[in-house]
Design brief:
mainly beta, Jelly Rolls, seven-stranded antiparallel beta sheet, five-stranded antiparallel beta sheet, 3 helices, 10% helix
């Protein structure tokens, strides 16, 4: 698992005031290992227009061919445990067979009780600026069981060769 902390260069108005759209096909591009709950929604909203106050941190992660989106999870939404296939990312980024894809989740605000990110068997909880991630097809899930929106920046890129 990848983890760390960066300095916060944004405030909540930088991500709360953006225009979001519902993810167009949440089940495309991953293989779920869990059954779905009839009581929670499998969805989240996304925004590809990243303010400079947030995108200024991207060089920190030393990735090539970076793609990112801000994700907004409404209360009562989740993604069950799954592994990403990165179908769209691979299609548009000329990923070679020896390239390792890296996925980073950067917390844009302090986690609230009920806001969850699991990577394998580790729960990831923290303050604004904390980030967690994985390489390739690691098992993970996300949920928002709180009463407030959950915002994070999802960063996808190819591991830079040393």
């Amino acid at each position: 698992m990848i983890e760390g902390k960066i300095s916060v260069t944004w405030d909540k108005n930088d991500y709360e005031s953006l225009e979001y759209q519902t993810h167009p096909n949440i089940r495309r591009g991953y293989s779920s290992t869990a059954s779905e709950s009839p009581h929670l929604d499998i969805t989240h909203d996304i925004c590809y227009k990243i303010p400079n106050s947030i995108s200024s941190c991207l060089d920190t992660f030393n990735l090539r061919s970076v793609s990112c989106q801000i994700q907004r999870y409404s209360p009562g939404t989740y993604l069950p445990f799954h592994k990403d296939a990165y179908l769209t990312y691979k299609k548009f980024n000329n990923v070679g067979k020896n390239d390792r894809i890296v996925r980073i989740i950067l917390f844009l605000h302090d986690s609230l009780p009920g806001q969850q990110l699991w990577i394998d068997d580790q729960i990831c909880y923290g303050k604004a600026g904390n980030f967690y991630g994985w390489k390739d097809d690691c098992l993970h899930m996300a949920a928002n069981l709180s009463e407030s929106y959950r915002y994070n920046l999802q960063i996808t890129g190819i591991e830079s060769k040393q």
